[in-house]
Design brief:
heterodimer, A: alpha/beta, Rossmann fold, seven-stranded parallel β-sheet, 12 helices, 7 strands, elongated, B: alpha/beta, eight-stranded mixed β-sheet, 13 helices, 8 strands
């Protein structure tokens, strides 16, 4: 059973307030997240792209700027500070406290704290509703799971305190009917297996609304003649056979992908290896269907 | 990499996730073993098929011999790193007493901390590497570095942990008798803030872990220095695995710059998954129907443009890395899961 009523990416996305994206490292998760944001903003939606990586990331603000996407890079220590200043009315006078390396070490090490403050910031933006859609580029699947898990488990871990009370709001946002979780993967065995495991874990956590499963970098559906003429050059025959092999293997993997409770969409492997061009090609492809 | 690799004992294989690091590390290890070196491959999370090829089907042992055809005496060993277990080992080593050790290991919060602390996999990998380095029975050590968002995590992890374990930081958290009046105003406020946010119970539990870690900082700091020494040593080669695209190019450039700043030499760059170059156009077309000709030409066009795009970024790599050896590996349509293919790839890398 798929969670979505609509098979159309655009139709469904236009209704959403929050779209979370995750996937195994190196599958093009960020590119798909950016393309999602671009597609929505081209359809007159006011979009904010949120990216979070638990480590430093090589993000490219210039590319996003040139695509006209509003973008926030969330970082745990900064979110923590913002939260403390605002929620606790902690005075600006004590700014120095936040520069304290002990406090920074604490944020880093306290279980689930980074995830929760980041999720809290996403909730804050969601709650204020200054945009139509939040597109959240989550870290790779393992970390994404702890992103969802932390606020959910935190009510138990922090028996009292503000964080405990806030966690409930965040969990509500995760399973809000206007929130969707998309997964990016490749038409290959291992990434698919990992996506399946992620889905299983996530469904164990709560009633998430699973959306689209993007099969990125698919071999384009260019038909190979049924019989490859033996008169062709050896290298051309090799090329055609390889292309056919890839198509057949991916078709098998597609069958597996379709068993998951998400709507499967293919994104072809475009020949461009440049960032901006790739994002634009993916966005154009998303809108097409 | 011609002859340069021969003087290396440690092969660190690093790079972003999804570029085929684990396979390349396994390939290097296999080939080194076939050349007669007693080799160990340290990996964190091998793909299932690869794990089978390396004999990890049921890894009950931390170090496992891998059977290579035609070689009687085991030359290749594979080691799968279990971060949690390894951290326990580290704690046991640095603990001043058995009581201290048990107190920490039995603390639930400590377990969760190992999982959540950024860089704990990287730290454990570096620790394990140090152990192997001291084991003289190994001629070559290949490390498949943990998949990081950013390859730099590997280099920063030991420092980060040492910082965290710093005595002055630990003391700060300690619940024991330090009178509050000794703290500066800012510290007092921070303490209040944390307590308000997390509630006193949680805060007390955390302070307890910190308290228990007392006295272990020297161990962590010394290890950190050892790791840095090791990374800079002539016997270590850092091999960066990447892919010919804009994103990977930028990332790799940043990475090699930081390596240079840290004084760690880059031993080689490996570009993986290069598309094979096929002819651009159909020549002999007389016996083909118009339809087939068009179909074939479309595929040739597509494959040609894939290869051309990669070629452009490959040339950018070539110009930017200068004299650093560069190896290219062709994209393989089938999954790699046997020792023979691994040794073939290893041969290309070391030739």
């Amino acid at each position: 059973m798929k969670h979505l009523n609509s098979q159309s990416f655009l139709e469904d996305s236009l209704k959403r307030k929050v779209i979370f994206l995750t996937g195994k490292g190196g599958v093009g998760k960020t590119a798909v997240a950016w393309a999602t944001a671009l597609t929505l903003s081209r359809n007159k939606r006011k979009v904010r792209l949120i990216s979070w990586s638990p480590f430093e990331s090589f993000s490219e603000p210039t590319t996003l700027k040139s695509l006209g996407i509003t973008w926030h890079q969330l970082e745990a220590a900064a979110c923590f500070k913002e939260y403390a200043l605002k929620t606790l009315k902690f005075e600006k006078f004590f700014d120095a406290v936040f520069e304290n390396r002990v406090l920074k070490a604490f944020i880093e090490v306290a279980p689930g704290l980074s995830e929760t403050v980041i999720a809290g910031k996403v909730w804050d933006l969601f709650d204020r509703g200054e945009q139509d859609t939040l597109v959240v580029d989550l870290p790779a699947t393992g970390h994404a799971l702890s992103f969802f898990k932390s606020p959910m488990g935190i009510e138990k871990m922090f028996a009292t305190g503000f964080v405990h009370r806030q966690a409930g709001n965040i969990c509500d946002m995760f399973v809000d009917p206007y929130t969707r979780v998309d997964i990016v993967t490749l038409p290959e065995e291992m990434p698919l297996v990992e996506s399946g495991q992620f889905v299983e874990h996530l469904m164990g956590l709560g009633k998430f609304h699973l959306g689209f499963l993007w099969l990125n970098q698919c071999t384009p559906d260019l038909k190979v003649p049924d019989k490859i003429p033996s008169t062709l050059d050896k290298s051309i025959r090799e090329c055609l056979e390889d292309h056919r092999f890839r198509l057949e293997r991916e078709a098998k993997n597609l069958v597996e992908a379709k068993k998951m409770p998400l709507v499967v969409k293919k994104i072809p492997k475009f020949s461009s290896e440049a960032v901006k061009e790739t994002i634009e090609q993916i966005a154009a492809h998303m809108e097409e269907k | 990499m011609t002859e340069a690799w021969k003087e290396k004992r440690i092969f660190l294989v690093g790079g972003p996730g999804g570029v085929g690091k684990t396979t390349i590390a396994a390939a290097l290890g296999t080939q080194l073993a076939l050349q007669g070196y007693r080799t160990v491959v340290l990996t964190v999370d091998p793909a299932k098929r690869l794990a089978q090829a390396l004999g990890f089907e049921n890894f009950t042992n931390d170090l496992q011999p891998v059977n290579l055809k035609g070689i009687k005496e085991p030359k290749l060993f594979a080691s799968m790193l279990d971060t949690q277990r390894y951290f326990d080992k580290v704690i046991s080593r640095f603990a001043n007493s058995e009581t201290q050790r048990d107190k920490i290991l039995n603390n639930r919060l400590y377990r969760i901390m190992v999982e959540s602390l950024g860089g704990s996999h990287e730290y454990a990998a570096m620790e394990r590497l140090l152990e192997f380095t001291k084991d003289n029975s190994f001629d070559k050590i290949v490390v498949d570095t943990p998949p990081s968002q950013n390859a730099l995590d590997l280099l920063n992890a030991p420092q980060k942990l040492a910082d965290f374990m710093d005595n002055s930081v630990l003391r700060w958290f300690q619940s024991s008798n330090t009178p509050f009046s000794l703290f500066r105003q800012g510290t007092k406020m921070a303490m209040k803030l944390l307590e308000k946010l997390f509630g006193s119970d949680f805060f007390r539990a955390l302070a307890q872990v910190m308290d228990d870690l007392e006295g272990m900082h020297t161990g962590f700091r010394d290890r950190n220095l050892e790791v840095i020494q090791l990374l800079k040593s002539k016997a270590t080669g850092f091999f960066l695995v990447s892919y010919p695209s804009e994103v990977r190019f930028n990332e790799s450039s940043d990475f090699s710059r930081v390596l240079k700043e840290k004084g760690i030499p880059l031993a080689g760059v490996i570009l993986n998954r290069l598309e094979k170059k096929f002819p651009k156009e159909l020549t002999k077309t007389s016996d083909l129907s118009e339809e087939s000709r068009e179909q074939i030409q479309k595929i040739l066009d597509y494959r040609y443009s894939l290869a051309t795009q990669q070629q452009y970024w490959l040339s950018r790599f070539e110009t930017s890395i200068g004299k650093t050896p560069l190896k290219c590996l062709e994209k393989r349509s089938e999954e790699i899961h046997d020792l023979e293919t691994l040794s073939q790839i290893g041969e290309i890398l070391l030739s």
